[in-house]
Design a protein that fits this description.
Layout (H helix, E strand, L loop, with lengths): L1 H24 L1 E8 H13 L4 E6 L12 E7 L3 H10 L2
Length: about 90
């Protein structure tokens, strides 16, 4: 009986990790620039109900300071085509 319990726990963990890994692959970079521009586009996309996130990047010159000077905007793969349309119309 204990064996079945542990087996179900292991199977549950494997299923969780599979779906978590799949979600990590479903983000596509769409825009990379300085932090202010990226957050401007991020708020624009969020106001249009686009699933997106910002990832901070570090420039080599400020590597020791730990300050973000560049950021990347990523969108979920399901929203990629609509994001392209919105960003092209917003220029």
């Amino acid at each position: 009986m204990k064996f079945l319990f542990y087996l179900f726990i292991v199977i549950g963990i494997i299923i969780f990790l599979y779906f978590k890994r799949k979600d990590l692959r479903s983000w596509l970079p769409i825009f990379e620039s300085n932090v202010e521009e990226v957050y401007s586009k991020y708020s624009f996309l969020k106001s249009n109900n686009i699933k997106c996130r910002v990832k901070g990047l570090y420039s080599l010159g400020n590597w020791g300071s730990g300050r973000n000077t560049t950021a990347r905007l990523e969108v979920h793969e399901k929203d990629y085509a609509e994001t392209r349309k919105l960003l092209n119309n917003n220029r």
